[in-house]
Amino acid sequence: MKNKKIKELILPKNFVINSELDNKYNEQPLFKDKIDRANHILKTVGLPKFS
Amino acid sequence: MLSENYQLNISNDFTTYEFESIGPKGSITKVVKYSEINVKGYYNLGFGDKDPLTGYICDLSVSNNNDSKKVLRTVAATLYTFFSKNTDAIVIATGSTEARTRLYRIGITNNIELIEQDFIILGLKDTHWEEFKKNETYGAFLVMKKL
């Protein structure tokens, strides 16, 4: 009941929790090139300073 | 903004999303994935199409389903739920191609007033991060929820 209330609070009405997605892509590392690029950017450029 | 996006299926940890793009090319499954990278608290925003035959997710597909704005709004909508569970996270987004990075920039520019109500956006300009400005070209974007 508590979990249901939390989900109602933070999920817009057109978002649906689907537990089948929880481990669906574990065997297929998604977007590895982008992850590598992101790691490279942060390593070479550094971390930002948010004001 | 959230009312004009596709319905999304979402994993319990709010890091994996699926939705159906509907258009002249039919129904195309899109996947959005937030993956923590080497720096703790930083997540890559990945987005691509699912191949209906192989199930493989490709972020280089050009689906031409005449709904790019709605798709972009839907991807943007995932930021709200992702940050609702990962309030201190910082999301990095890069396009899979220069054209797609430009598309992201245009999408941010067109909605910057709305976005800046909730998020801080930085752009990667050459070798430094700066506050997002319209009409600038960026190589990547960082998004953080305003506290």
Secondary structure elements and pairings:
The complex is a heterodimer of chains A (about 50) and B (about 150).
Chain A (H helix, E strand, L loop, with lengths): L1 H9 L4 E3 L14 H14 L6
Chain B lengths: L7 E3 L5 E8 L2 E11 L5 E9 L6 E2 L9 H18 L4 E4 L4 H13 L1 H7 E7 L2 E4 L9 E5 L2
Parallel strand pairs in B: 4-6
Antiparallel strand pairs in B: 1-2, 2-3, 3-4, 4-5, 6-9, 7-8, 7-9
Q: List the uncertain runs of chain A.
A: none
Radius of gyration of chain B: 15 Å
Separation of the first and last Cα atoms of chain A? 39 Å
**Integer-rounded radius of gyration of chain A:** 17 Å
The count of strands of chain A amounts to 1
How many E strands of chain B? 9
Work out the largest interface and the residue count of each chain.
A-B, 32 and 49 residues
- Tell me roughly what share of residues is in helical segments of chain A: 40-55%
**Biggest β-sheet strands, sense, barrel of chain A:** none
Kindly state the percentage of residues in helix of chain B: 25-40%
One letter per element, helices H and strands E, the order of chain A comes to HEH
What does this structure look like?
- The complex is a heterodimer of chains A (51) and B (147).
- By secondary structure, chain A is mainly alpha-helical.
- Helix content of chain A is 45%, strand content 6%.
- Chain A is built from 2 helices and 1 strand, in the order αβα.
- Chain A has helices at 2-10, 32-45, and one strand at 15-17.
- The termini of chain A are far apart.
- With 147 residues, chain B is of the alpha+beta class.
- Chain B has one domain (9-145).
- Chain B contains 3 helices and 9 strands.
- Chain B has helices at residues 68-85, 98-110, 112-118, and strands at 8-10, 16-23, 26-36, 42-50, 57-58, 90-93, 119-125, 128-131, 141-145.
- In chain B, strands 1, 2, 3, 4, 5, 6, 7, 8 and 9 form a 9-stranded mixed β-sheet that branches.
- In chain B, strand 2 and strand 3 form a beta hairpin.
- The longest helix of chain B is centred in the middle third of the chain and has 18 residues, at 68-85.
- The radius of gyration of chain B is 15 Å and the shape is globular.
- The model of chain B has no long low-confidence stretch (mean pLDDT 91).
- At the A-B interface, strand 1 and helix 2 of A face strand 1, strand 2, strand 3, strand 4 and helix 1 of B.
- Strand 1 of chain A pairs parallel with strand 1 of chain B, so a sheet runs across the interface.
